[in-house]
Design brief:
The protein is of the alpha/beta class. Helices cover 22% and strands 24% of the residues. The chain is built from 6 helices and 15 strands. A hairpin with a 2-residue loop joins strand 3 and strand 4.
């Protein structure tokens, strides 16, 4: 199946910096291990490249401990890129670090410039629309700016609600194919996925909901065997990556790349 929401020629990632120990986290469950994160990041990049995609690996930025989570800096669409305005003040500078790399690729780049906040982790592009979850990092003003830009490019934006206690909308969901969504039961219960085929992650494996469909692969966090088996039985080719250290910074598979 080929569709812009799951078929990609390129990806951008950024190697973690040693300053990751200072990264943001909702709950402190211990400091991430730098060497472990580097090994996991290398495996992640290898999985992306195994599909034939060109993957650019940017240098780490010590001044921005969360900069490896590049997805929050921009939304990449076939028509152009939209630079985000992160809701976490310490992450705003990451956008300007990413902008020059996107300008090498896109001729049309626009920015969220008003008083709104929005991060890429709250945006799910499906086969029919762009879903944006309101969260502590994304507000209505940010979504309104995004909607104006996306409408110019022929996209429909729909605002949905991220459940309390969930950092980003995509913490609890991911796209498996243009019409199939992997989701926690908690998020799906809101009705935000009505009309889609929804696969529920098994109870106790809610952290597996953040994955990515990248060409012929579903790349998910390791350690969730029932979710992996469910996806395999549903016809997906699964690659599991160690997410132990990223999870300590509220990070997951989608956070680590921009895909276009």
């Amino acid at each position: 199946m080929s569709h812009p929401s799951i078929t990609f020629d390129h990806a951008i990632t950024r190697r973690p910096a040693k300053s990751i120990v200072d990264g943001l986290r909702a709950i402190d469950i211990g400091a991430p291990d730098y060497d472990g994160m580097i090994r996991a990041h290398d495996a992640y990049v290898a999985a992306l490249r195994s599909t034939g995609a060109d993957v650019r690996v940017l240098d780490p930025i010590e001044a921005f401990p969360d900069a490896q989570f590049v997805e929050d800096t921009a939304l990449c669409l076939p028509q152009g890129a939209i630079l985000m305005h992160p809701g976490a003040p310490s992450r705003v500078g990451e956008v300007q670090e990413m902008a020059p790399h996107l300008r090498e690729i896109y001729t049309d780049i626009r920015s969220i410039q008003g008083g709104g906040h929005i991060e890429g982790g709250d945006i799910l592009v499906t086969g029919r629309e762009i879903l944006v979850g309101l969260s502590d990092r994304t507000n209505a003003a940010g979504v309104a700016e995004l909607e104006t830009i996306a409408h110019d490019w022929g996209h429909t934006v729909r605002t949905v609600i991220t459940p309390p206690g969930v950092l980003h909308f995509k913490t609890d969901c991911s796209l498996m194919d243009p019409e199939t969504i992997l989701s926690t039961r908690k998020l799906d219960a809101s009705g935000c996925f009505d009309g889609y085929r929804v696969l529920h992650v098994p109870d106790g494996e809610e952290a597996a909901a953040n994955a990515i469909r990248f060409n012929d692969l579903v790349i998910m966090a390791d350690g969730f065997p029932r979710t992996a088996e469910m996806l395999f039985r549903a016809g997906f080719k699964v690659v599991a990556i160690d997410n132990t250290d990223c999870a300590k910074l509220d990070g997951g598979m989608s956070c680590l790349s921009l895909r276009f």
